[in-house]
Write a structure and sequence with these properties.
The chain has one domain (2-88). Helices cover 84% and strands 0% of the residues. It has two helices and no strands. The chain has helices spanning 2-12, 23-88.
């Protein structure tokens, strides 16, 4: 993108020691730079969308871990009760 900008800037504003370029060449350089700029803008938007999606995934993962963490004490109590029941059961 920087190369395209420098090319366009050189075509649009030639230095005194360099000959001016044709108007068509200046317009082509301008168009190429604008296309490159639009492409870069789309890449940035895509990167932002990816970052937002990853942030949502992290939030969901953390909520799921909290939910599972809240269930662990209940499951532990159920397993303990099952073990106690099996040791004291008359069905042995």
């Amino acid at each position: 993108m920087i190369k395209k900008f420098h090319h366009y800037a050189a075509a649009a504003h030639p230095l005194a020691d360099k000959p001016a370029v044709s108007p068509g060449s200046e317009e082509d350089a301008r168009e190429a730079f604008l296309i490159e700029l639009a492409s870069f803008k789309l890449q940035l938007k895509k990167a932002v969308l990816v970052c937002e999606a990853e942030a949502r995934q992290v939030e969901e993962y953390q909520r799921e871990r909290q939910r599972i963490g809240a269930c662990v004490p209940i499951i532990s109590l159920m397993l303990l009760a099952l073990c106690v029941f099996q040791r004291t059961s008359v069905w042995r």
